[in-house]
Write a structure and sequence with these properties.
Number of strands: 2
Number of helices: 4
Radius of gyration: 14 Å
Structural class: mainly alpha
Strand content: under 5%
Strand order of the largest sheet: 1-2
Number of domains: 1
Shape: globular
Length: 122
C-alpha cells in the first residue's frame, strides 16, 4: 500500500496510480521524453535536481501557461512514476515536492543508468 502525504491545495495533486505510458516505467515507449534533448537531460532535471515532474497525461501542453498553472495546482497532477523511481533508488526528496511512496521495482526503473539506456542514451 502506498503512503501519500497530505498536499496543500496550492500545489499539484499526486496521481493515485502509475500511468500506463509513464516514461519511468520499464515498458514505456523508448525515447518519449517530451521536450528534452536526451534521456540524460531528463534525469538531470527530474532526478538530480528534483524538479517535480507533472504527469504528462494530465497537462494541456497547448496552453502556454501550463508550467505556472501546474506549479500552483491549477493544472495537472504530480507524476507517480517519478516518486516510485525515487523510492526504488533509495532517494529521499530534499525539497518535499516529490511524493514519498512504496517501491515497485517490477514496473519502474531503479537507477538512472537503466532509464537512460532504455530511452536511447549512453
Amino acid at each position: 500500500m502506498s503512503r501519500l502525504k497530505i498536499v496543500p491545495r496550492d500545489t499539484p495533486r499526486p496521481c493515485k496510480k502509475l500511468c500506463a505510458s509513464c516514461p519511468f516505467r520499464k515498458d514505456s515507449l523508448k525515447g518519449m521524453l517530451g521536450e528534452y534533448a536526451s534521456p540524460g537531460e531528463f534525469i538531470d532535471m527530474h532526478y538530480r535536481s528534483e524538479v517535480v515532474n507533472p504527469c504528462h497525461e494530465t497537462i494541456n501542453y497547448d496552453d502556454p501557461e501550463w508550467r505556472g498553472k501546474f506549479s500552483v495546482g491549477k493544472m495537472g497532477r504530480k507524476c507517480r512514476g517519478q516518486a516510485v523511481f525515487f523510492a526504488n533508488s533509495l532517494k529521499l526528496p530534499r525539497g518535499g515536492g516529490v511524493l514519498v511512496v512504496e517501491k515497485d521495482r517490477e514496473a519502474v526503473f531503479s537507477w538512472p543508468h537503466e532509464f537512460i539506456k532504455h530511452h536511447g542514451g549512453e
